[in-house]
What we know:
The strands form 6 sheets. This protein has a 5-stranded parallel sheet. It has 5 helices and 22 strands. Helix 5 (about 290-295) links the parallel strand 17 (about 285) and strand 18. Helices cover about 10% and strands about 25% of the residues. Mean pLDDT is about 85; it is low at about 1-20 and about 310-320.
Amino acid sequence: MNMKRLFSVLCMGFAILSASAIEVTVEEAGTLKYELGNDYLTITELKVTGPLNGTDLMTIRAMCGVDTSEEQTGSGALEVLDLGNATFVEGGDAYLTNGAGPKYAEANAVGVACFRHCRTLKSITLPETMTAIRRYSFYGCTHLEHVNITDNVTEINEYAFAQCKKLKELPNSKKLTKYESGLFIGIELEDIVIPDNIEYIGWYTFQEASNLVSITLGARTAQLSTCALKDVMTVEDIYIKWQGWEGATGQVIGGDWTNVFDTYNASGALVPCIEDADYAYITVHVPDEAVEAYKAKSPWNKMNVVGLSATDGIKTVGKVSADGVVARYTLEGKRLSTPVKGVNIEQMADGKTRKVVY
């Protein structure tokens, strides 16, 4: 092969690789598929500007290898989806047709089960105009690592991110005040830091968080529900920053937390998930003035209760380093104890992440 022919082949290969990252502007809702062309199922990275309706969401689901009946098609390669400059509008076809009736697009909201089982998806940036993420919207997105939302989001409903095992951070908006039931079932994070704006953690929120070692409840997290940590057998440290209602001191966190590690059977009877002896391996770090109150309440009194000031201040609360880093990972998701040369992904105390080059 002569040099001219070799150069031509190399350029062709480069063009093929580059073509997988696409930017497109949709002028009329429902036309995304036509804007992308016949090879839309081969696209791995997509940035969209303009209005999207149910027909467009059906196209995006196909690009993630799942059809409207939620069958995996074996086609579709979309990994990175940027909808920051897009808007969701009503109209178009049903993006989902199985289950309890068809599901249609909702203006400024990720609809019920909208991206459910989109297993190729690794990163998504939602529209700036988005205000709500409905139940089951990302359920079973087993490779999803990053979800970028703005502070316009005021609610995230039940099971929205359940079985999103690879999430590297908890999606957060400063206007969000509660984690509804089952929100992060199956998440594989080792350290979880609840942002300070979250006031309530619902039933089964972190069920089956099989790698969880440390969880920090935010300064306004005043309610913790039954079964929130169901089947979590690995936790070693619980940090509680809430200091009580205004004007009161020495209070125990509210909610039906009495059975936070337990579950209920089909008959409605409470079933313990861990033995009393296992509680002895858990240290719960609480405001100093509340130590005695926690020692008097079950199940906290089964754990090793210590004051926050006795555990080295902010470095220990949520295991936050002096620069606000809670946890550090390689690009491949491997947990790091110290920075390594190259790109490090750092999880911050406010729930956000950043990429840092060392």
